[in-house]
């Protein structure tokens, strides 16, 4: 006996009545079999009922892909009941990944031009939900016509569809630009709200639209002033605030239009002050409007008094009992610290008080607020906050350090308290800072020696201490530092401490490398016998770590064969230039100096003598050097020598670099090298830089190439890109392309930025031709 097919209501009751997951699957499998049979039989009367049941099954998470073609048949039907279910199915079962979605383009075009409002609404909703770029290009003229239809129902849906089209295909901005000015005069709430959203999307994606709509700033100001003073309609008021959704949307548009534009900012200054002072803050709706007002004031070229008013509003938010409001206030104040520091300082006690909050998000949001309180907080904060707190302290110390000694003490405190949680560049920054403060060398080496003697578990601290002892070990033994208590240290204690670091199971390979190099440098700074150092170096010549083994073998060779050169090779390191504003200025000055010196003749004789000195150094013997023959300065002699030279092919032209990604200050650049000995191999260096105000963490870059190519990804140099142009992350890609096929690259980036997870997937199709031909 064949069990009849269930109605939709009966199917829902039976599924809800299933006591186990197995019973539910059994009911659904049986009904799906009936639905398949009905689709095969081609029953046109009950097709929409079968598809409605299938859509319910799809919403429960079960496969329903076999109903895609039935959606197309129902959309093409002339009955409204069929179209309604067909369009709903298209929105749920079709997307850009399925080619079948392109088959409904003609049906949507016909329905949009029929003039039946319910059908037009269904078609517009479907297009705005799953319309691809191809569909948007084909149907943009029909949607443009509907923007000026008499029916508010159709116009509202057409505006929302236009927003989707602009997001999919930004070049369609010119199509929807003319109707927007007329739509701004509408009194219908849905149409006006949709129009403001459409103009916002146009301004964000088109500079021409941004210039065009700056002319309507007075009109937008008038609309918002009317909302604040007289209201729009009581049905759209929430908690006594007149239409907060429309107010927020207008404020966002004004923020875009007033950014970096003096005239527009001046036009909206009085209105922003009126909104900021007259909005009720006893309800969340008023707080939302007020927060958008503050963001607008911060982004445009507002008056100084208005910016102080915005900071005071955020200060009132900090006193709110709602933690969410206090969190957004803290994050907003963080953006204002640089531009309005004095205004933010008035709320310093309230900001510091937030450090004692049990809510982790409030503690994390102001890690740069006060150094003294942060250092105390660092000692007792939860482990998951230590990385953010340590990073904030280091950044604040670098920007606002009053003296170098205070800067060094602050970083040492962080390394001692939370050394394992600091950023990757903390070691390099501190060694550069100590190297540039010559008057603090003795002080620094003694502080680091004491810290190392107490704790060797904090690896960044151990690395800096080992570097400093190796560079300035003679100052440590001299004991002539008057700034701290006298400390008597002998050579054996220093060597024993470094050997302890080498032998510790907590030491990383990089830390052992620092310690071994420090021992080697002490061999030129200590007055005693170097036999102990030579023994340690020779022992690590058979270390399992290849890097440490190579370093030990080279040091041992220096002892045995080139002992007369050891003092010169192991002398103190010169000051290393670092990235930053000061480095940029110094580079600019050196570039100008180089340009001034270009006109001067280049002496050739000193270069020759330097070459001979270099040959002497490399050969190791002074009497066996063969000096190069003297070249005849006459043109004829030069030609003879030129003809005697072997014919060397010119080096290949360099491949230009390529910027492939930029978002909120995060940039990704590609540089290319094709080794001459292996033209089929392409080396791509990925360089990730960060010019924003927040660190980029957990950075991962993945790549894919066509099957005809071979790709090998090397390990990246790190996973954190420091803020404000800090040390970038580099990663090497090795691509083998023996057939010289056109190169395409697909990249996937994942990282955390401003406490938000970001994932970007994009293709790079504009790679230089020199990289693969």
List the keywords.
773 residues; alpha+beta; three-stranded antiparallel β-sheet; 35 helices; globular
Largest sheet: 5 strands, antiparallel
Give the helix tally: 35
Rg over C-alpha atoms, rounded to the nearest angstrom: 35 Å
Secondary structure: helix percent? 55-70%
Proportion in β-strands: 5-15%
Give me the side-by-side strand order of the main sheet: 1-2-3-6-5
Number of strands: 8
Distance between the termini: 70 Å
pLDDT < 50 runs, ≥5 residues: 363-369, 580-648
Class derived from helix and strand content: alpha+beta
Describe the structure.
The longest helix is centred in the first third of the chain and has 21 residues, at about 20-40. This protein is of the alpha+beta class and about 775 residues long. The model is unreliable at about 365-370 and about 580-650 (pLDDT under 50). Helix 14 (about 245-260) runs parallel beside helix 16. The chain contains 35 helices and 8 strands. The strands form 2 sheets. Strands 1-2-3-6-5 form a 5-stranded antiparallel beta sheet, with no helix packed on it. Strands 4-7-8 form a 3-stranded antiparallel beta sheet, with no helix packed on it. A hairpin with a 2-residue loop joins strand 1 (about 660-665) and strand 2. Helices cover about 60% and strands about 10% of the residues.
